[in-house]
Amino acid sequence: MLKLGLHVRRNTLKLEVALTLGDAQARRLGIRIKGEKGNYFAHTLNNTVVAPPRMLIAFVENNLNEDGSLNIPEPLRPYMGGQEKIVPPTKKKSF
């Protein structure tokens, strides 16, 4: 099932999509429901664990520097090759 939601607010349009994944995520996460006929895995949506756009926005808002660089939190550095900052590319002057 594909569920679309359109939200209009102050001249902006926000599109949200939710896909039903059945019990695939629940099996990996071990999410079970106690039912009358025994326990079973819950059915989840694609954004059950985390909402990626919102997570990315919060990450940028909390780690952005005035010069446009982005601090990488200590726990994420091993996944970024030990990098401490993401620095925007310098603009080339055109003549």
Q: Could you walk me through the main structural features you see in this protein, from its secondary elements to its overall organization?
A:
This protein starts with a strand and ends in a 9-residue tail after the last strand. Strand 1 (2-9) and strand 2 form a beta hairpin. The longest helix is centred in the middle third of the chain and has 12 residues, at 52-63. It is of the alpha+beta class and 95 residues long. It is 19% helix and 35% strand.
What does this entry show, briefly?
The protein is α+β, with helices and mostly antiparallel strands. Helices cover 19% and strands 35% of the residues.
Describe the secondary structure blueprint for this structure.
Blueprint: E1 2-9, E2 12-22, H1 24-29, E3 32-35, E4 38-41, E5 44-45, H2 52-63, E6 70-71, E7 85-86
Binned, the helix content reads 10-25%
Major beta sheet, strand line-up:
1-2-5
Low-confidence stretches: 1-6
Ends distance? 53 Å
Strand content: 25-35%
**Tally of strands:** 7
Question: What is the CA-based Rg, rounded?
Answer: 20 Å
Number of helices: 2
Structural class by sheet pairing and helices:
alpha+beta
Give the SSE order as H and E letters. EEHEEEHEE
> Which of globular, elongated, flat, extended, rod-shaped describes the shape?
elongated
Q: Whole-number average pLDDT?
A: 78
Largest sheet report: 3 strands, antiparallel
